[in-house]
Amino acid sequence: MKYLNYLPILSLFFLMSCGPQEKSVEEVLENGTQAEIEQKRKALNTTMLELKNKIKKLDEKLSGFEEDYAYALVEARELQPRAFKHYIKILGEATTDENILIYPEFSGNLKDIYISEGEEVKKGQKLAKIDDGGVSNQLAELKARRDLAKTRFERQKRLWDQNIGSEIQFLEAETAYEQLNNSVKQVESQLKKSVIYAPFNGKIDEIITDQGQVVSPGQTPIFRILNLGEMYVSANVPENYVGSIDVGSEAIVSFGAIGKTFKSEVMQVSSNISQNNRNFRVKVAIPDSIDFVKPNLIATLEINNYKINDAIVIPEDILRENAQGQSFTFALSMESDSLGVAQFRELKLGKSYQGEIEVLEGLKASDIIVTEGARTIKKGEKVKVLNFQKN
User: Does residue 322 register a pLDDT over 60?
Assistant: First the structure.
């Protein structure tokens, strides 16, 4: 081997380093006896054999280094089927169906407000009273007239049942009573609108109109009431995902503004596709345990639209493309625990998510793929595997 060229130099170095008690070759040749010359020769032969053995070991070690440099160095992993999920990412916002402005149904002066801003109220609770402008007095008068008409009607009915009096008198009394009774009901209904009640359980988020102001139906908002216990995220999904997202689909919700991320599920999918943006609407539930969520808070949604239990999945960054735009990578045919031959594998790919991609065709379970160094090797090249992840 080439390292033997250094043997004379090493021998000379050894001889020069011998202690002074030993005679040099020149001294033995000049003054030594035959026995001393033979002894010196024998000693040098022994030393030379020892040096050859040491040099041989050094050569073997150096050959190992040369072998490492002769092959491309890669890392590899054995493939095994595993679960794979794909999610679509869209923006949405927190909302609730119970977030409304309360308008009066009666015109007049806002006489009394019975609650304060931020107060929790129950459905049907009295919130405010509008001055009825004399309608209550009108109602009292009508009730008195109705009561009198009722008495007349009942008396006329008794006489009619005894065949006393005329039929026309009975019918007139009956009609008068019914008309006044209907008038009382109408005024009662009108008067009831002068009181504002809570439409559902919730919080008075804002008192918009001050006490003493004149209010009008449909024009003057008085309160904003909302129920934060019934909130959800609403989002628009492109129509090409119709059929892959349904009620119960897994969703990951992130509210960046409050630093909250949680898992949930789709609670409703719209049956209508908007003609304006070709989207359909989904609702994703927000658990009651998530604090600080307010209406219109922006959310990022990741909704699961595809999942498979036994998928072949590889890192996207090991993919390469040929001149025809076809994706490929390299698998290894192992010759030993650390040496293998790179095999070209053309791939048919599926969905990708978070740096991983599903392989539909081209690889199978137990194949060994190159995970690091794939971009520097060629088809049929022998490589050395430094890190081999076996399943």
Answer: yes
